[in-house]
Amino acid sequence: MFKIRPLLSALINYRQLLERNGYKFLCTMTEASTDQQTAKLLKRENEDSAERVSKRLKSEGEQADDDRKYPKKKVALLLAYSGKGYYGMQRNPGNSQFRTIEDDLVTALVKSGCIPENHGDEMKKMSFQRCARTDKGVSAAGQVVSLKLRLMEDVKEKINEHLPPQIRVLGLKRVTQGFNSKNNCDARTYSYLLPTVAFSPKDYDTENAAAFRLEAETLQKVNQLFALYKGTHNFHNFTSQKAPNDPSARRYITEMSCGEPFIRNSYEFAVITVRGQSFMLHQIRKMIGLVIAVIKGYAKEQVIERSWGQEKVDVPKAPGLGLVLERVHFDRYNKRFGGDGLHERLEWDREEEAIKAFKEAHIYPTIIETEREEGSMVSWMSTLPIHDFEATVTGTQDGKGQKQENADEGNNSD
Length: 414
Known about the structure:
Elements: H1 4-69, E1 72-81, H2 101-111, E2 129-130, E3 139-150, H3 155-160, E4 167-174, E5 187-195, H4 216-227, E6 231-234, E7 250-258, E8 262-264, E9 267-276, H5 283-296, H6 302-306, E10 323-329, H7 331-337, H8 352-374, H9 376-381, H10 396-408
Parallel strand pairs: 3-10
Antiparallel strand pairs: 1-3, 1-4, 2-3, 5-9, 5-10, 6-7, 7-9, 8-9
Helix pairs in contact: 4-5
């Protein structure tokens, strides 16, 4: 028994020794494997990092080469577009589901090489500024944007290659470094294309809209009413959330009239033209809407002048479909710089034929076909009885006004 104990003790000691050696061996293998994996990861990371740096340096080098080859210059672009399918002119970074005209324009500027790719999301670096903000569905035949771009050969054609057919750059002119298309703009001219059935008596059967023809006496009366808007007035009732004593509600109108009617696709249409220093949201549509209400017999003529007073007046908002930014004016800029021998006048006489062709191909057909198919004007006319033009919009009238705003929501375009 005493002889067995030393043997057992020796076996136990040997086993412990093996376990200790084996354990250490496994640990050594595991640590070695981990070190190899770490080394591989570090090597891969260094290679990826080096590749990224190389690509960035190459990109920056290419951009520097482009900048040296084509120095950035301040220009004014003449832009025409059909607004159907777009959520207005102004870009909304980070909100890609609502496509705007500027989204497509900036993409084309980047793809054509006119601006660096890394400036596409920061157009302030290119001193980008639009002259007028047009909203959902509104078109333009004479929008102007100012920015710095690489002035390469055939620059208009290169930009247009990357634009859809309903957006076109029609003109380009060099401007002063301090030029800003919004701040230097003296006035804006809009047109509004509408079916003349809008001026029909309120008891006219709109199911027969195609047969309506505007009489000369009615057109004369329409223009007498539009003439009342000329001059400086308080248009707080013609926009949203403007107090009567807000100085910014005072706007200067120089021209407003309706042209002779013409026939398109069996329907009679006419074009209203309005020129003013600047316009507030919905102002033009409400100016037109109120005149239509008077002509149709829903309101008295006196409501127009009353709407410029301190009280809140219920003013209807005509559909946005037919609204077009026709032209923007830079009279002061032209007077100061147009004759200095270095800069061109910002007038687009040479582009007039291209502007007219674009309107005939992309703007007027879209408005006319959409009006025929959807009947937005006739539909809006059916909401006019909701308005109470005799009372001020307080208490119950606020509710009626809200109903009308809701009814107009589908036409919320300017």
